[in-house]
Amino acid sequence: MPPRGVVSKADLAAAAQRIKDSPHVRRTPLLRGWPVAQGVEVLMKMESLQNTGSFKLRGMVNLFAKQLANTGAARPQGCVTMSAGNAGKSFSYLASREGLPAVVVMPDSVPKERAEAIRSLGSTVDFAPLEGLSGVVQQYVDSKGYFYAHPFDDVDLIAGHGTVGLEILEDAPDVDVVVVCCGGGGLVSGVAAAIKHHSNARVVAVEPAGAPTMYLSKQAGKAVELDTSKYSTIAHGLAAPFAGPISFENVKAFVDEIVLVTDDELREATRFMWEQGFVTETSGCAALAAVRAGKLGDLTGKTVACTVSGRNIDAAEMLHEVFNHKL
After folding, report:
1. CB 56 within 8 A of CB 314
2. 231 in helix, strand or coil?
3. How far is the C-alpha of 290 from the C-alpha of 295, rounded, in Å?
4. C-alpha to C-alpha distance for 229 and 106, rounded to whole angstroms
5. CA 124 to CA 122: how far, in whole Å?
């Protein structure tokens, strides 16, 4: 039997059907013809074109469907999550359509524009220091009876994210390598499970060198929590304060390796996407950054699929973090 929390083929199949039935999730394109590396066919899975701007909506749709189906007549009083942006946006979008009161607990360091985007979707925003997010979430669960939609460490959420991998295989069944950005591990866990359950393709997770939570977890052999005061990365969406235990089990089971990219490599990849006509966050360009920087070794003759996710970056943030920085 697989370890508890490891995503099964049945989990993926059920999530795929729920997401297919959902009016909210787009089937995003797998785009070819990118001038990334000579002798390598690079494909981009454009989750930045997803409704709400990121892959996060997939997992939230599956999580909400399971949660609301299981409660029956006892409808939840509300829902709560913690997020620096994208998970909170998808969560808020769905909660408003379900008519549920919703709270997003955000790090007090996030740009105010991100909090306003969450509020515009109908959720209340509560701020806390990064290391105190979980405690604030628990207060809403205990005092108000809200259900907690975890932003990255939930089997149903991960299975929903895994539909990204299923779609990659449908569009490119002979793919050799799948490269996925990694923060808390929700996306790479789901994609890796989907890939490994259905193919022999190599799966690589990519983290920022300044916030290598899953990388250090793999070295330690367990999910670890890091001192967030030591984080230093422009990839805010990948700077998870801890690796989720469920995500870690899936990474351990399905991910072949984890590589790290620098902020300069992330900036270069983000500028490249801009030049190709796509607005993407630095966090969402981590997979591309690893390929462009040669972090995956010799890929000559290979077909490589990269996830690209997250377009929720405002112009001032883009100019400050990406274009005004001199390499």
Report:
1. no
2. coil
3. 5
4. 16
5. 7
Query: Is the predicted pLDDT of residue 306 greater than 50, yes or no?
Result: yes
**Per-residue pLDDT averaged across 24-52, rounded?**
95
Q: Which two tokens stand for residue 188?
A: 């790479």
How far apart are alpha carbons 168 and 36 in whole angstroms?
Answer: 19
pLDDT at 321: 66
SS3 content of the chain, % helix, strand, coil (to 5): 50, 15, 35
Q: In sequence order, what are the residues at sequence separation of 6 or more whose Cβ sits closer than 8 angstroms to the Cβ of residue 135? A: 128
Class of domain 57-148: alpha beta
Instruction: State mean pLDDT over 142-154.
Output: 92
| pLDDT value at 3 more than 50 | no
pLDDT tens string 201-210: 999 999 999 9
DSSP label of 279: -
pLDDT (tens digit, 9 = 90+) per residue, 12-35?
999 999 999 999 999 999 999 998
For residue 320, the SS3 value is helix
Fold: same for 9-55+155-323 and 57-148: yes
Between CA 189 and CA 205 the distance in angstroms is 9
Alpha helix (H) residue ranges in the chain: 9-21, 56-71, 86-98, 112-120, 133-144, 155-161, 163-171, 186-198, 213-220, 245-254, 263-275, 286-292, 315-318
Q: Are 264 and 209 in contact (CB under 8 A)?
A: no
Tokens representing 94 are: 């769905």
pLDDT for residue 1 is more than 60 = no
Render pLDDT for 197-245 as a digit per residue (tens, 0 to 9): 999 999 999 999 999 999 999 999 999 988 777 778 888 888 888 888 9
**43 strand-pairing partners:** 305
What residue spans define the domains of the chain?
9-55+155-323, 57-148
Q: How much is the pTM?
A: 0.91
So what CATH class is 9-55+155-323?
alpha beta
